[in-house]
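Re: the request from the purification team.
They wanted to know what the chain is likely to look like in 3D before they choose a buffer screen. I agreed to run a prediction and write the result into the notebook, where they can find it.
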Amino acid sequence: MAENGIMHPLETKSSSWGLPAFVLFKDARLVFKLDSLGLEILRIALPAALALAADPIASLIDTAFIGRIGPVELAAVGVSIAIFNQASRITIFPLVSITTSFVAEEDTLRNISPEAAKCEDLEKSTGHKSNEMKELTPEDVAAENLEKGAGGNAVTKEPEDGSDTSTCKLPSATASKTEVKKGKRHIPSASTALVLGLMLGLMQAIFLIFGAKILLGVMGVKPNSPMVNPALRYLTLRSLGSPAVLLSLAMQGVFRGFKDTKTPLYATVAGDLTNIILDPIFIFALRLGVSGAAIAHVVSQYLITLILLWRLMKQVNLLPPHVKDLQFGRFLKHGLLLLGRVIAVTFCVTLAASLAARLGSTPMAAFQICLQVWMTSSLLSDGLAVAGQAILACAFAEKDHKKATAAASRVLQMSFVLGVGLAVVVGLGLYLGSGIFSKDGSVLHLISIGVPFIAATQPINSLAFVCDGVNFGASDFAFTAYSMALVAGASIASLFLLYESNGFIGIWVALTIYMALRAVAGVWRMGTGTGPWRFLRSSSMP
């Protein structure tokens, strides 16, 4: 694509690839290269992956401790966790995803042109310009990047606490003009995210506490089932931590937007270590059983929230000058789209857990162990998704199509390689180490049946999760919502059909179909050169 008679370096080469889909394989031999892009991805992805994996790992340890009590308690906790996670994802996932993109965009514009960022109100006054603004606008910066072959310098804003923040490309001629004054940032989307996170957390706690019995019944736990009492105790106590969970995740979205994934990692590790230490004390020493496991988890979540809030207050003015600065309308517009999407995403997994519970406590216990391992290992690739989203949001804000394409291709290629490695590690690890989670022979037999599915789906899962980050970074929220609705419809049908005919195995076959469809839908937009990726199609045309 040529602009103003100048050919962008990327488009000069991409024309030889023909179709936009081939860009996904472009420079695949450089997937392990530690160039500036590779280092930026790893700097964001590694801490993010560790932070994302920390909580499921803590849940795995919970599972191991509870498994020592008995298979009934293990199955009861599995159902309760499925309900809690479903509610949490529905309420917080849209908020976290939107917050990351919005904060990255605002911080990028702030770094490029402080006065423009200060005047920018993305909700009400996009076209307003200050008479006193002397710095370049983002469009001017992008145009100068094109004229100089995007050969600008990088300006990095280092906060006082030493955490990493966003790095945005700027022309050397304007670098001295665009340095941001030291001090706390004013990011309206960050303040909005925290207010919404706290409100949603309180609403979720009330909903789960008063609706616990009904929700357990919906999940297939009958009133006379031995799982009812332990499941009810665990879910009720765990719900008390909902405000802390949602508020901490909202703050993690803010830090991700700053490309700072180390701070959430430190806070998460501190909280999860506390959980691990308190588990045996509350469960066995104090003889609280499943209630002790829930209490330990709640304490750890509030500790994480306090740490993140303390760190964030050092960097951001959390109280906006005026209430009207809060961007509720903007969040609501995109949040409703992602709300529908996340309901479709998590309903498939929750339905699978419900069907497993109908098979009995033993199949449910085996399914819970397999599902925890499946999700924990797959979430490691979410670190790449976070990196892709943050980098792409910055690149699209700068209108740097070259970096957007290169970053998207690189993270997708890295995700597939990661998935292949996880397939080997997870397959062997679960096959040889399933005895850690249970000593029941029937449970171990069912786990061995699920191992091939868990291992084989790792590359598919990894690709699907990273595609989410790529699409969110491009702010393509509408497409991700509508495409997931279609995927969920086909997946739900396959779950019911295969469950009736093949039971435990059928559930895992259906989940494999579900993740495969997610991966295809994820790469569709970029592969066809549509939506925010239209520039790929125009560059491939003669």
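For the purification team: The longest strand covers residues 153-156.
Please add any questions underneath this entry.
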